[in-house]
Amino acid sequence: MAEKVKKTRPELLKQRRALAMFKRFLPTLLLKKQQIQMEIIKVGDQVKKLHEAIETRINEIEQWVSLFSESLPGS
Fold first, then answer.
1. How many CB atoms lie within 10 A of CB 14?
2. Which of 8, 16, 30, 64 is 20 to 30 A from 23 via CA?
3. How far apart are CA 74 and CA 53, in angstroms?
4. pLDDT band at 68, cuts 50/70/90?
């Protein structure tokens, strides 16, 4: 919810300075936000690839599990 702004000259100057600062830094912050979002997408893709690689390894190993789980003759 918006604050109630005092209608005095010092408050107006304070608000103008704050607005100028926001206008100055907003493009930088938006760019940084976009870079972070792109990095999140990139990391998400890497995680997906790693999960797929793990799943592939598990599928490869499963065929050997039955071989190693057999009891040896004479045991």
1. 13
2. 8
3. 38
4. confident
Rounded-to-integer distance, Cα 25 and Cα 30, Å: 9
CB 36 within 8 A of CB 44: no
Residue owning tokens 């490869």: 60
Q: Which residue has the tokens 């065929």?
A: 63
Sequence-ordered alpha helix ranges (H) in 1-75: 9-69
Q: Identify whether the C-beta of residue 7 lies closer than 8 Å to the C-beta of residue 1.
A: no
Cα 14 from chain centroid (whole Å)? 36
What predicted TM-score, i.e. pTM, was given to this entire model? 0.61
- For residue 54, give both structure tokens: 């793990």
